[in-house]
Amino acid sequence: MLREKKIGFIGGGNMAEAIIKGLLTGGVPCGNITVAEPLEKRKTYLSEHYEIGTTGNNCDAALFGDIVILAVKPQICLEALRALGKKSTERKLFISIMAGVPTKTIEAELSELARVIRVMPNTPALVLEAASAISPGVNATQDDVSLALEIFSLLGTASSVPEKLLDAVTGLSGSGPAYVFTFIEALSDAGVKNGLPRDVATRLAAQTVFGSAKMVLETGEHAALLKEKVTSPGGTTIAGMHVLEKEGFRGIVMTAVDAATSRSTELGKG
Question: 5, 141, 193, 203: least buried by Cβ within 10 Å?
Fold first, then answer.
């Protein structure tokens, strides 16, 4: 079904490019994609690199697409939406990746016949390993939800959640890559402290995180059970775990997610 749809993008930044990569990898013809992008250099890059259509006019992209992906910065969302006009938004499915902009705000600027879905992807979308959550607006149908899940599953994994939980998604997976990068950096630093060359330490740290995450996803086992399998009685791992527990590692991570979730809620209120 997705391969038959025409898809217009409002905004051609990095996250839009990640979605375009996923769509093309999933078999969507390049002729079915058009991006509205104001910067000539960026427009040329997208056209030449992906052989997709480009335009400098947001209305053209909206009129082109059965699905319109809103990929502009939240600060200019109202300006971008109002420039579209009601006519160019009739009977379209709009998928927004604009952080902190509620579906009701978007719906108020579109035709009454438009449907809206809000998506919170994260930056690993750039390597097609995103964790995304989608939330339908009041007019979105189950078919619309299925289409959005299909699109964002091409970028990694995708789940459907009520919109009221998107702040929690932002705090966990939206901000989560920064927590993981900090953990990888700390592991690498510890390796260097103990004599490893920096490149070796970083490669070992990053692969350890990647492989461990893959085990959680592919085995379906609870992370606590997988941890137990690594933790031998009287061994090195339990000695390290003792320090993490003593220093409140899990509590610090949970507090960080709480703080990011609260900030997301604040930003959403304007």
Answer: 193
